[in-house]
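Q: How would the structure tokens look for this protein?
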Amino acid sequence: QVQLVESGGGLVQAGGSLRLSCAASGRSFSGYNMGWFRQAPGKEREFVAAISWNGGRTYYRTDYADSVKGRFTISRDNAKNTLYLRMNSLKPEDTAIYYCAAASLLRIGPTREDEYDYWGQGTQVTVSS
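A: Here is the predicted structure in token form.
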């Protein structure tokens, strides 16, 4: 199995930027597709972005009302066993606990919670208006 620890959250003003990190340990990091989810107060956890095992393919939340594509960038460094989420042009509605998660290589472009096997404990991101 793999253990995941997120970091990099904090308080930022609207329009600002943050970079989240997710450090992995245990089984080979490159043996997993990875994703970021978030959960705002009173809401269900939702998909934000995912990346294939070698970084060759990325997927983003594209709901019209809540799209992150163009503002957020998911990336990974397999040599450092670390997943990243760069968040630019942050909005108050991006306020949430952000979780990283690991999915089997059999899951192509995983966007659902039930496609992921391992989760971190989350890091809080708060965007003030």
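The chain has a mean pLDDT of 94.

The two ends are 40 Å apart (CA to CA).

Upvote if useful.
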